[in-house]
Design a protein that fits this description.
Elements: E1 2-4, H1 8-24, E2 31-33, E3 45-48, E4 51-54, E5 60-61, H2 66-73, E6 80-82, E7 88-92, E8 95-98, E9 103-104, E10 107-108, H3 111-116, H4 122-129, H5 145-153, H6 155-170, H7 179-182, H8 184-193, H9 196-203, E11 214-217, H10 222-231, E12 236-237, E13 242-248, E14 251-256, E15 261-264, E16 267-269, H11 273-279, E17 295-305, E18 309-310, E19 317-320, E20 328-333, H12 334-337, E21 346-353, H13 366-378, E22 382-383, E23 389-399, H14 406-420, E24 424-426, H15 436-456
Parallel strand pairs: 1-2, 1-16, 2-12, 7-19, 16-24
Antiparallel strand pairs: 3-4, 5-11, 6-11, 7-8, 9-10, 13-14, 14-15, 17-21, 17-23, 18-22, 19-20, 20-21
Bound molecules: flavin-adenine dinucleotide (FAD).
Subcellular location: Cytoplasm
EC number: 1.3.3.15
Function: Involved in coproporphyrin-dependent heme b biosynthesis. Catalyzes the oxidation of coproporphyrinogen III to coproporphyrin III.
């Protein structure tokens, strides 16, 4: 078997296959094939001058169990750290406004925090309250996140609250993003309660104590990758870019860029979908008709002496409103949200840059990206001088866009591919969830299917 791609999805798939083999005493050759010179894909932690800096993802959701379960299986539970709680803000008109309390993905569950909010105009608030009176949508299979929320709560609410909150996860155009693939729970809530506000009330019981939702590892997420790489006994190829797959008598010849080949009976692809599409170029149905290219984003970590930084509005960071003419789309006061990352007497702020339709900043030099981010940051945080050092990371075409119809398309391509390429599976951020727990779940699932098909049912 072959697993193509050594990000968290591919490594999880390999680890799961190994576990199943250990449990059943079945043996089969598995090779992990990674194009770059390191494993982990988007996950990359940098240790520098006592700081733990995440260049990509910084944590995972605890509610989805797969990441926590993997951490436990790998014996890393004692390294787990949960985030500090704190207020989060939305940047609008160069000012920070608190996100209304008791809201679920931006949808208010109580009226008072919405009515008191400085984020919306009086008209915007009145329009949001209409949600309580307008009838539910007639049954539908899918529609865009933007249309769905704007139809119920109004445009202002989408631009100034919902869009900024979702942009950290999808960095996309909400009017193309599939509701069913990204936030299906809202379809159900609206159908059941006839209103998003009433639906949010059911999901967020009043006076429920706020608890930490995210976790990471003390030495950064790369320690999860390192532990996986240590635990996996299969051959793991680096600098091995797959360019083509050829069918040969029910098996597959995997061709690498350097001309070398491997033979496999089953394959799990864990690459960004565009890359898989190039490799399986004889499968035109893999191209989604209304596909949108992945969005490119960047992170800018800035390390300061604590005395240089005064956070005026106490909290853990902010996201920028959709229309804010700011280079940064979000910022985390990492030393406050994740104190273990920062030596005492220091401060660490991580900004995000780049969003759909505004990715040109990533073509600028590091110096310009840092200067622009710092200038924007200084609007809302008192910063004296320049960072002691900064780390810019460009993650090109890194945020997959689940466009309207995504779920239906995925079902179709899985069926057709299963017919054309038996024992070949697609898993990872391009398909069924972008978060780390989603990727781990997909890696596990593909491994189980392949194992059952090739070893149990054979
Ligand atoms: C800036 C940013 C911040 C994020 N923050 C969070 C967060 O805080 N929490 C969270 O849960 N999620 C977060 N995410 C999402 C999450 O990090 C990703 O969805 C996840 O890491 C993707 O894992 P993957 O294994 O599916 O893909 P990747 O990590 O993209 O791995 C794919 C691998 O395939 C390799 N590859 C590509 N082409 C070939 C080829 N032809 N042959 C062989 N190998 C190839 C690549 O080199 C790569 O190593 C974030 C994403 C980004 C971009």
């Amino acid at each position: 078997m072959a697993i193509i791609g050594g990000g968290i999805t591919g490594l999880s798939a390999a680890f799961r296959l190994q576990k199943m083999m250990d449990e059943t005493k079945e043996e089969v050759d598995v090779t992990i094939i990674e194009a770059s010179n390191r494993f982990g894909g988007k996950i990359e932690t940098l240790q520098r001058e006592g700081f733990t800096i995440e260049r990509g993802p910084d944590s995972f959701l605890k509610r989805k169990r797969e990441a926590l379960d993997l951490v436990e299986e790998l014996g890393l539970s004692d390294q787990l750290v949960s985030n500090n709680l704190g207020k989060a803000y939305i940047l609008k008109n160069r000012e920070l406004h608190p996100i209304p309390e008791y809201s679920f993905m931006g949808v208010p569950s109580l009226l008072k925090p919405l009515l008191d909010s400085s984020l919306l105009s009086e008209d915007g608030k009145a329009r949001a309250l209409n949600d309580l009176f307008i009838p539910p949508y007639p049954p539908f299979d899918d529609m865009s996140v933007g249309d769905f929320f704007a139809g119920r709560l109004g445009q202002e609410m989408v631009d100034d609250i919902i869009n900024p909150l979702l942009s950290g996860i999808y960095a996309g155009d909400l009017y193309k993003l599939s509701l069913r693939a990204t936030l299906p729970q809202f379809i159900e809530l609206e159908k059941r309660t006839g209103s998003l506000i009433l639906g949010a009330k059911q999901v967020l019981p009043k006076n429920k104590k706020k608890t930490s939702q995210f976790a990471t590892l003390k030495n950064g997420l790369s320690s999860l990758v390192d532990r996986l790489v240590d635990a996996i006994r299969f051959p793991m190829l680096k600098n091995a870019c797959v360019t083509r797959i050829e069918k040969m008598n029910g098996r597959y010849k995997i061709v690498l860029k350097n001309g070398e080949t491997l033979v496999a009976d089953g394959i799990v692809f864990t690459l960004p979908h565009e890359k898989t599409q190039d490799i399986l170029s004889d499968c035109p149905y893999l191209k989604q008709p209304n596909a949108e290219p992945c969005t490119s984003v960047g992170t800018v970590a800035m390390a300061f002496d604590a005395a240089q930084v005064t956070i005026q509005k106490e909290g853990t960071g902010f996201v920028a409103s959709n229309k804010e003419p700011s280079a940064i789309t979000a910022a985390t006061y990492t030393h406050l949200k994740w104190p273990h990352t920062t030596p005492s007497g220091k401060a660490l702020i991580r900004c995000y840059v780049g969003k759909k339709g505004d990715e040109a900043i990533l073509d600028e030099s590091d110096e310009i990206i840092i200067q622009n981010s710092l200038d924007n940051l200084k609007d809302v945080v008192d910063i004296d001088g320049n960072p002691e050092f900064s780390v810019v990371t460009r993650l090109r075409e890194s945020m997959p866009q689940y466009v309207v119809g995504h779920t239906q398309w995925l079902k179709q391509i899985e069926e057709t591919l299963g017919h054309d390429y038996p024992h070949v599976y697609l898993a990872g951020a391009s398909y069924d969830g972008v978060g780390l727990p989603d990727c781990i779940r997909q890696g596990n699932k593909a491994a189980k299917r392949l194992f059952n098909e090739l070893l149990v049912d054979a």
